[in-house]
Design a protein that fits this description.
mainly alpha; 3 helices
């Protein structure tokens, strides 16, 4: 358990190291904001998040209903 947790931490650290900016290149959010596409990205993310939340709520209700039956 500890080894897998430690491995996951090191993996996250390596991902953060790769996410560093290169000098002279614009950041992705700045480029999207300049083009006005950042709102599309935010809308898609919110739609996906809302879908996941609705799915989990429905699943919880179904599980609760099955638990009451048995």
């Amino acid at each position: 358990m500890r080894k897998s947790l430690l491995s996951a931490c090191f993996l996250m650290l390596s991902i953060f190291a790769l996410a560093q900016n290169r000098p002279g290149e614009p950041e992705m959010a700045d480029a999207l904001r300049a083009n006005g596409k950042i709102y599309v990205v935010v809308a898609v993310i919110l739609t996906i998040f809302a879908g996941i939340i609705l799915y989990l709520v429905r699943l919880d209700r179904k599980i609760s209903k099955l638990e009451k039956q048995s």
